[in-house]
Design goal:
By secondary structure, this protein is α+β, with helices and mostly antiparallel strands. A 3-stranded antiparallel beta sheet has the order 1-3-2. The termini are far apart.
């Protein structure tokens, strides 16, 4: 998919565009776990928790295709694969911080 094709397929509403890119529960958790730095697949699966390998792989591929993260494969035996956020992915930090602050505030008001 070229960048030009991707732009044509984006929703007119910017909020809808953001939700399309990170609106899935697993994608937000992947972003959260990659904010501090690079992680391997197994580390992500363990830190995220109840996600299947198939779903995690699909989410990572989608995020890579959308330019939010990079996947680096090392020619080792067994192969080592690492994931890290691109600058575009890192630019979502204020959104995740706002979600964390809102969640903390909600918990204190509703306990």
């Amino acid at each position: 998919m070229t960048t030009q094709t991707a732009k044509k397929e984006l929703p007119a509403c910017p909020v809808e565009t953001t939700l399309m890119l990170i609106g899935d529960k697993w994608k937000v958790l992947i972003l959260r776990d990659l904010m501090p730095g690079t992680k391997r697949f197994g580390e992500l699966k363990k830190s995220i928790g109840n996600v299947s390998q198939k779903v995690l792989t699909a989410q990572l591929r989608d995020m890579e295709n959308n330019g939010l993260l990079t996947r680096t494969v090392y020619a080792e035996v067994p192969p080592r694969v690492e994931y890290s956020l691109t600058d575009l992915g890192k630019s979502l930090k204020p959104i995740l911080d706002a979600m964390q602050n809102w969640g903390e505030e909600y918990k204190t008001q509703n306990l």
